[in-house]
Amino acid sequence: MALLDVTNLSISFGGLRAVDNFNISIEKGSLYGLIGPNGAGKTTFFNLLTGVYKPNEGIINLDGNNITNMKTVEINKAGIARTFQNIRLFKELSVLDNVKVGLHNRFHYNTLSGILRLPSYYRTEKIMNEKAYELLKVFDLEGEADYLAANLPYGKQRKLEIARALATSPKLLLLDEPAAGMNPNETKELMDTIRFVRDEFDMTILLIEHDMKLVSGICERLTVLNFGKVLMSGETATVLNDSRVITAYLGE
Amino acid sequence: MISFISYLINGISLGSIYAIIALGYTMVYGIAKMLNFAHGDVIMVGGFTIFWTVSTQGMSPLIAIPLAVVLCTILGVTIEYIAYRPLRQAASSLVVLITAIGVSYFLQNLALLIFGANPKSFDSMIPVPPMQLLDGQITILGETTVTVISCLIIMGGLSLFIKKSRPGQAMLAVSEDKGAAQLMGINVNKTISLTFAIGSGLAAIAGLLLCSAYPTLSPYIGSMPGIKAFVAAVFGGIGSIPGALIGGLLLGIVEILGRAYISSQMADVIVFLVLILVLLIKPTGILGKKLQEKV
Amino acid sequence: MTKKPGINQAKADNQVDTNIKSNNKNSNGTIKKAKMSKSTRDNMITYGIVPIAFIIVQILEAGNLISNLMSGLLVSFCIYIILAVSLNLTVGILGELSLGHAGFMCLGAFTSAFFSKCTVDVITFAPLRFILALLIGAAVAGLAGILIGLPVLRLKGDYLAIVTLAFGEIIKNVINALYVGRDQNGFHASLKDALSLNMTDDGEVIIDGALGIIGTPRDSSLLVGVLLILLTLFIVLNLIKSRDGRAIMSIRDNLIAAESVGINITKYKLMAFSISAALAGVAGVLYAHNLNSLAATTRNFGYNMSIMILVFVVLGGIGNIRGSMIAAVVLTLLPELLRGLDKYRMLIYAVVLILMMLFNWSPKIVAWRKQHTTRYFINKIFRRELKPANIDQNTADQNKGGQ
Question: Which of A125, A157, A127, A126 shows the shortest CA–CA distance to A144?
Fold first, then answer.
């Protein structure tokens, strides 16, 4: 059974059907790409998946559970984590704390233990620090652990966002234009990191991207969105060579 | 029944003043997206200007009133230029709000230094005789008649101005989308200045009407009516001119009836409870629009 | 998206540079430790200021170097400090503006004074009575924080500010209209006047409307105030550096991102708001037990008080706990020290508030400040060969690189 199963998903704003009768099925462990021209409804689809918007119709199944109409927080607990097109870090927190916020629901101690500094505080904080450093190391950020997130260079901010999302230990990771604003070197490095994350964490990744080098380089399957509808889905090579897709991107 | 009707008339009178003040809040909120906390204190400045020029300098009200309007207009535009404009690009709306509170505090304490804390008695400047209805059972004060009529004229005039004139259209455009308006060649800074000018000019008139209806004047006279007028603006739907009228009238009536039938001390409590209920049940107010943040 | 090659090059260099750096710091455990001890040291200074100030005051007092007026103010300092630190939890850490902080203080003051006055004959051991009063005052204020916060914290920014203001005024007005008395049949309450309490002849009015409560035992002292400041600091600083504190600050920094990693927004907003309210209640308890008669006026529990606390917070630096403490003391002390300035005190507060906001937050002024640092001036004065244009170019490049 597929990890993510979306059937007949639709939402309209005013009269515009931003996502129209959308179907997608993503196997566990795959690296899946969602592409399409600007305004095709890709980010809207992410917002539907994560409960930011409620769909008008359709069902979203994650690992056999129906998560349609769940709240964002519950969806995250059910196993979806994401990054944002316009980076949304906790800017005034340190890089380490950004990741530790991601670990929030995995390691607990109550408020009183925190204020009174009971042993469970020290025990849990120690584990959280270790886990957070492990993740930062994956993204080569451990040297900047004590920096404020706002002071990181752009490329590292994007990486930190991925690290924070991974900290919630999701089943499905959504990346919204992870390579936006990166130079070719950084993009190449990012591709390696994404592949590494998939292999190391046994992660399923769905990403939106405009950089075709990245898409063709790491995605196994693609779905092309155009005007809110699925134009086609399939193996990356097949899709990218399809005349309809080329037309959608380049015009007649 | 008779007393109820006269309470209702009082409520409409107070509500009309709230509506005029609420206009200033609602226009500034709609266009500059900020809560101008100092608006109530501009009312106070208007009241003191008229008081000082007429009572101390012996000027004719016919000169004093336009003078107060001009002074408040200049004050409003200056406040915006010095204190708010530099912060318009700042990240958090909290920043502008705290600054506005500072401006409000500044005006209050400046007036306190100049005029002292003792309330001044303000002679009504409205020479309209009271009207007797139902064989003298109900008296409508001249102040009430003038207040309600001025409120209606201002509302009508302002609605026409925004619908028909070019600067009015520019205001609408800026309230919809600042960036797009700028691209269409609208001078956003000028438009916002104009909004503050209109709102503050109206505040001077509100000051006159308020002090005529409740003939005392103190540095704090503007702050409570100002806050209540903001409640009225929220009640009617912030950003909407008819909303300000409806919200103002309803709030004035609620306050006067509450004062009459429940307890004078609890009248303010009731007004604030109205605000809280409105925000909880329909945060956009009676005629407001819904806004959603883009993710 | 096209980019200038120069910038890319600079960025790539930067990347390499940091890579080398992180290679050098292989044992990141040591880095972590160094930083941890820095923040602990920071907190230690914050805590340390309080007893040191207390000891200095004691020495001055022993040497008769403090005027009567000043020693009368000492407990007020403690009250203002607790208020400023607790409001900073809402404004600086949670990132919401509350204009009703004095209302929570009012609740704490009245409930605790009510308790103390009722039990003054029953519990004769003053410290125990005060501790109980403290718990009651804090609990009631904190509970009010939850009740008010639950509906209100859904609102954003400006609305939240105005609603908290409204709640503060409601609390003050209701208490002003409240009459509570006690006779052989138990307690009576009324919102009209003392006569409507319908008490028997032995009845005693405890809360007398606008006159408030008269005859609260004076259990507050400077020592109590100092201990309560330390308690407040302990709670706030430890909360900030804990799992819950991180969650609260993540909401402040980016609500949507916080939700996306599973942070329960309502829970943590409420937590910060109610702890802040409970601590304002603690300040109220200290206030009530420092006076013989307690009445709710615009001056002590009104909107003006809330604004004054806000001024302390803004001046001390939003989110800076130690700054709040220092600002509260300095701003109260300054007008007392400079005689004749008292008249202008509020005006000065207002001007300072506006200027601080412009100085700290106006994008233009912030940019100007970055270009006109002390180092810039030193360069300009002593090293003429380093042309200003060069420096401007450098900072501009850095800005671009950072984007």
Answer: A157
